[in-house]
Amino acid sequence: MRGERTDRAGSSRAEGPRASSSSGTSNEPNAKCLRPRAKPEKRLLIMKTIFICIKGALGLAALAVAGCSSSGSPASQGAADSGADTEPQTLIHAADVPIDGLPAADTKGFDDGDGLFDLPFRPADGLGPLYVRTSCGACHDKAARGPGLVQKMAVVGADEVTASADQSLLAYGHTVRQGLAAGATTPIVPPIDPSVKITTRLGPPVLGRGYLEAIADAEIERVAAEQATRTDGIRGRINRVTYASQPNSDTSFHQHQPGDANLIGRFGLKARVVSLDDFTADAFQGDMGMTTPMRPSEPPNPDGLTDDLRAGVDLGLDHVNRVAFYLRRIAIPRRVGLTDQGRALFEQAECSVCHVPSLRTRKDYPIAVLADVDAPVFTDLLLHDLGPAIADGMTDGSALSTEWRTAPLIGLRFMKTFLHDGRASTLLDAVLAHEGSARASIDLFRALSDADRSALLAYVGAL
Questions:
Q1: CA 171/CA 256 separation, integer angstroms
Q2: Nearest residue to 437 via CA among 273, 215, 231
Q3: Which of 374, 380, 325 has its CA nearest to residue 354?
Q4: CA 74, CA 214: separation in Å to the nearest integer?
Q5: What are the distances in angstroms from CA 288 to CA 139, 275, 284, 412?
Q6: pLDDT tens digits for 164-209?
Q7: CB within 8 A of 347, min separation 6: which ones?
């Protein structure tokens, strides 16, 4: 057995894994390992707290002058598709803030997890042997999109779209990893072969992801069944996936076991991940080479290294759960400038078939303000064939090269580029790039007058 050792988040390896704590407290850190990093982390949390407080004070002052008020009730969180300047009622220019109406202890836990989300790892912490980025925040800055990105590679057929049955050229997987640590000398790079397709994925926003996790399975199945009856080709399907992680001892959100099949994928650009704790553990392992009890093995690498400078599992389960605690409570930024005209055009062009304005959450979801509400997420969480132009050759679960999960339209006004790889510099470019099963909707969009197209794009841009 290994001796007791404490990770940078304060989780003791000699203890069993602990459930997520809303207070964000941890065991006394190992002074030798942690003291150099404790002060920067503390300063980060203090600065973020001061910043949020200042924004809150300014926001309250602005509301007082305007003579209006903000409501954080669950009912108000769910009506974002009903017209102008609707809920959720967070600060107008704020992203990466907690959902309104959370208990004080949850807000404290949110700040704790936010600090861990932005914390960069070092080789001594277990970074590597190979990695893409050193922190979660590097790909999801302020919980939004990018700036970090991941390159993917796949062996494709002659059409440069369809994934080949033989992927043996990619002995170490589909992700390019060029960061080296812990004695690694050989990065994972695309082989020089014309059959290898290389694509880019920007880190997607994580705003409002607790709402996505809270949506009832029956709601997603209902929407899929309704779309299956359509005759215009606009239809999607659920990505049924198999749970790949080890179990989480905190069973408040789920009780999945390795090998559990037929689960509904929700997270990731192709909906291959089921829950936010699994999403977190998967990113620690795949993007940073940071192993956890849920994902305890290092990804294969050309040097054959099976561990890093920190022997054994790098992060305790408590670290995973504290980051997931934060992710589950990030607000949907307040939507300002939505108009009834824009909403009507959104429906007229059939955008709302896939970008469903709201879906009902489960009654038993453990976060009370997210339970049994209409979640204003503007997605169906289904896979849709968007045509060969944006195909990446990748298969995730049952998702094919041309299939992508409907992107939630959340926080678009904070984005500078659009689509999974940022190829679209405007919302118009992004809309027109939709092909495949979205063709009927795009034809309706093209048929609109210039003024109506502008009004529709303004509506989407305000989401």
A1: 29
A2: 231
A3: 380
A4: 13
A5: 11, 19, 5, 27
A6: 999 999 999 999 999 999 999 999 999 999 999 999 999 999 999 9
A7: none
For residues 137 and 182, is the Cβ–Cβ distance under 8 A? no
22-45 average pLDDT score: 38
**What percentage of residues in the chain have a pLDDT greater than 90?**
75
The Cα–Cα gap between 344 and 82 comes to 10
Can you say how many angstroms the Cα of residue 205 is from the centroid of all Cα atoms in its chain?
Answer: 6
3-state DSSP call for residue 456?
helix
Report helix, strand or coil for 140: strand
Contacts for 295 with CB less than 8 Å, ≥ 6 apart? 245, 246, 281, 282, 284, 285
Q: DSSP string covering 68-121, please? A: ------HHHHT-TTSSTT-S--S-TT--S-BPTT--HHHHHHHHHHHHHHHPPP
pLDDT above 60: residue 47: no
190 dihedral zone (left: phi>0; alpha: psi -120 to 50; beta): beta
Dihedral class, residue 337 (left if φ above 0, else alpha if ψ from -120 to 50, else beta):
left
On whether the CB atoms of residues 203 and 407 are closer than 8 A, the answer is no
Among candidate residues 360, 408, 404, the one with its CA nearest the CA of residue 386? 404
DSSP single-letter state for residue 16: P
Q: What is the DSSP letter of 255?
A: -
Q: Report which secondary-structure segment, H or E, holds 288.
A: helix 276-288
Cα-based distances in Å from 434 to 203, 408, 439, 450 = 20, 15, 7, 19
Q: How many residues does the chain have?
A: 463
Q: For residue range 356-403, list pLDDT tens digits in order.
A: 999 999 999 999 999 999 999 999 999 999 999 999 999 988 999 999
Q: Residues 6 or more apart from 116 whose CB is under 8 A from it?
A: 9, 319, 322, 323, 326
**Rounded Cα gap, residues 400 and 162, in angstroms:** 8
Containing H/E element for 52? helix 31-66
Residues 120 and 135 sit within 8 Å (Cβ to Cβ):
yes
Count other Cβ atoms within 10 Å, centred on residue 122.
15
Tell me the pLDDT tens digit for each residue of 429-461: 999 999 999 999 999 999 999 999 999 999 999
Q: Which of 185, 437, 151, 442 is nearest to 301 (CA)?
A: 185
What distance lies between CA 460 and its chain's CA centroid?
Answer: 20
Cα–Cα dist 122/110, whole Å: 24
Tell me the CB-side half-sphere exposure of residue 178, using CA atoms within 13 A.
7
CA distance 463 to 206: 15
Residue 390 DSSP code: G
**Residue spans of beta strands (DSSP E) within 215-294:** 240-241, 263-264
